[in-house]
Automatic annotation (TrEMBL), chain A:
Keywords: ATP-binding, Nucleotide-binding, Transport. SMART domains: AAA (SM00382). Residues 17-251 form the ABC transporter domain. InterPro entries: AAA+_ATPase, ABC_transporter-like_ATP-bd, ABC_transporter-like_CS, ABC_transpr_LolD-like, MacB-like_ATP-bd, P-loop_NTPase. This is Peptide ABC transporter ATP-binding protein. GO terms for molecular function: ATP binding. The keyword Metal-binding does not apply. It comes from Microbispora amethystogenes. Pfam families: ABC_tran (PF00005). Residues 228-254 are annotated as: Disordered. The lineage of its organism: Bacteria, Bacillati, Actinomycetota, Actinomycetes, Streptosporangiales.
From TrEMBL, chain B:
It is a multi-pass membrane protein. This is ABC transporter permease. It is found in: Cell membrane. Residues 287-399 form the ABC3 transporter permease C-terminal domain. It comes from Microbispora amethystogenes. The chain crosses the membrane at residues 39-61, 283-308, 336-358, 370-389.
Amino acid sequence: MNRLPNEPVRAGGPYVVELREVTRTYGGVRALRGVDLLVEQGELVAVAGPSGSGKSTMLHLIGTLDRPTTGTVRIAGHDVPGLSDRELSALRARHLGFVFQQFHLAPGVAALDNVADGLLYTGVPPRARREKAAAALERVGLGHRLGHRPHQLSGGEQQRVAVARAVAGDPPLLLADEPTGNLDSEAGTEVLAVLRDLHASGTTILVITHDAEIAAWCPRQVRVRDGRIAGDDGPGTGRRAPGAVPATAKGASR
Amino acid sequence: MTGETTGGTTGGRLVPARLGPSDVLRTGVAGLRTRPARVILSALGIAIGIATMIAVLGVSASSREELLRRLDRLGTNLLTVSPGHTLFGEQAKLPEEALRMVRRIGPVRTASATGVVGTTIRRTDRIPEAVTGGIAVQAATSGLLATLEGRVTAGAWLNAATETRPAVVLGAKAAERLGVTRTGVRVWMGERWFTVVGILGPMPLAPEIERSALVGFPAAADYLGFDGHPTTIYERSTEESVEAVRAVLPRTVNPENPEEVTVSRPSDALAARAAAASAFTGLLLGLGAVALLVGGVGVANTMVISVLERRREIGLRRSLGATRGQVRLQFLTESLLLSALGGLAGTVLGGLATTAYALARGWPPVVPPWAFAGAAGAALVIGTIAGLYPAMRAARLPPTAALSAT
């Protein structure tokens, strides 16, 4: 969890995410109006804000799915505006993992294959993909459900499969977009517990949420409002262990 | 991950991983597996087009094969000699001794002649003279049946005795038109009764004989006023010497006016028929092409809808690191698989249809190999064209589609 001791610190710093004076305008709408955000390795950060605050735009930019209108976006040290679409694809394949609110699992396809297919574009050979997928499912506590199809799994389990898919390739950064938004509180607790464990083992995680409770659970909170950062606990604070998993759920913890 | 990625350096080059062929195939199949009904229906369009084309080509190839086999059985060594026209445009005549001359040519194995007699044949004397039924009365030498390798279906062929008597042998069609089914009946020829002594079977190489009533040369001269000039000489030689014989025939038959002699090879007409694709085949082939085109439009339509429905999947793949090219390839593969599936089904259907039709007609079922190659090629071309536009659309979708769609 410490700064990697042997890693030389170069220009741009050791940040996994580096946004500097980022703006993003859609047509005439200014979704982001000058955002600075630095995330170090191993942090668990909540980006919280009401809908329309610009947090989704931030997710798009950090996920390299979109480019800033002005400003600097560096992900894992790569300068996003300077990269071609192909290079961005390679960046996403190797450095980023996504967890979506709607899971986005392929229907009728076993959990193991859903996770293994997440590694399709990483250049890992098929057999190794399945091995990594099995290991990732083990990590999220679904080692006994490898052959289950999405419709045979509960919502929480489906989202855990999606988390396994996102982390199977060991990306330096995991982006979770409202990961509990489609789940009841018990299933949500299940997923947060998985995120907590991943964080404990050193994965950098960014959770985008409008849920104040989940935001409060994260050791570092970044509040977004009207396209600006309204509050930030500061780089590095996200390394602390998170609090107890929010227990609106009836005492469910793993 | 490697140090290059986590150390915060900008030095490492980012190169997307290549998908192996089996992975490309898997992504293509994945899209089809979830919508089996739609896959079957849109592949059906291609299948119908391909099946039509295969069946049309197969049926015409089968009928051609049948003709060629018949030709093989009949032999191609038969030549006919007939009078042409004189320099002044009049109908020429073959000399009376022409048949003897032909028989003297070395490689000639057998030769016979027929001569048109200027009279008619009628069932009875009550039928008006104008009603000929299209039947020609001809004098025939006794060797004709052997030369044509024909046979009689009833009675007997002319022999040394009957060729001098008022006896007649009817060709198959002539007998049918006269309503004669057995020998021994009498028919009215010229100004007297002749007795039917034989009825001939089919003569594929000499259809004119099928429509003739044949009497012996002596009888024709005695009873019907025949002038003795042959009008057609039939000749068979060894297969190898057909061309050589053909070259010398005119001069042999009519040394004074060889240009007034026409030599032909009846099997050529059959061969030409075998070689010629009928206009009907062309029309049906065009119909098949239209069906194929409609099938292609169906596939394109299915693919466009598929792309619209799968915005989120496309966005997900982009977020997982798929390049635009890889997304394009995925949808192109899907479209190709779809039309290949249709092509395969169509080939099987077309082959079955050809076999069924050919067997029903008693033909050998044949589908030319190039038709299969053409079907495969057509399916691939259609699949590519149909998939190109939807694939481009899929590739152009912004990667944020996965997150924005609800």
